[in-house]
Write a structure and sequence with these properties.
CATH topology of the domain at 5-148: Serine Threonine Protein Phosphatase 5, Tetratricopeptide repeat
Order of helices and strands: HHHHHHHHHH
Largest sheet: none
Distance between the termini: 120 Å
Number of strands: 0
Radius of gyration: 43 Å
Shape: elongated
Structural class: mainly alpha
CATH architecture of the domain at 5-148: Alpha Horseshoe
Helix content: over 70%
CATH superfamily of the domain at 5-148: Tetratricopeptide repeat domain
Length: 230
Amino acid sequence: MRSNLIVILILACLFPCAMLAQSAEKVYMHKGNKEFVRKNYSAAETYYRKALEQNAQNSRARYNLGNTLLFQQKPKEAMQEYEKAAPLEKNPAYKASMYHNMGVILQSQKQFGPAIECYKEALRNNFRDDETRYNLALCQHQLKNQNQDKDKDKDKDKKNDEQKQQEKQNQQSDPNKNQQQNQPKGQKNEMSKDNADQLLRAAQMKENRTQDKVRKAQLHSNRKQMENNW
């Protein structure tokens, strides 16, 4: 995305004035422009704000203020100044640059729809601006891709919802299956025949061992009685 038009238009705002005839408003504008060229954006911002204190309807001062804010990485504040400046500006070239800069901010934030409208408005005021025309075409392409991505996400969400609905219907039609699935691993509602046989054999073996012990104990007792009798 190209945004160097901001600097070009700012430089176009620098106009020589006779210092003796200048009002306070023009003095602040002149000082602000000098500081902007020196890349002292904070100082330039101060002078542009002072110019606006003298005349709040000064669209050029507000536009330049927006540019200083943009160069200070304050796009939200810059956007507010451009939005105030554009309706006040009478010169089509300056108005076009204001809408162009608004488009640049919106495009960088992936707000492609609003950005397209700003670029179109810029071209209505300056149809020869190839920079804006390029940004407009790029933005339209980005919006198309964005919409395609949204459609893919919607299709994916739709498939997930359909799958969940199908699983819910299956669970309702076969509640026993759902109950088995919710049991801990290895646990079943009914004991298998093999497991029952194994448990039965184990119980029988235990019973046999118990009976052997009892018989041995009885035999030992009989022997002691016999020995005592002798």
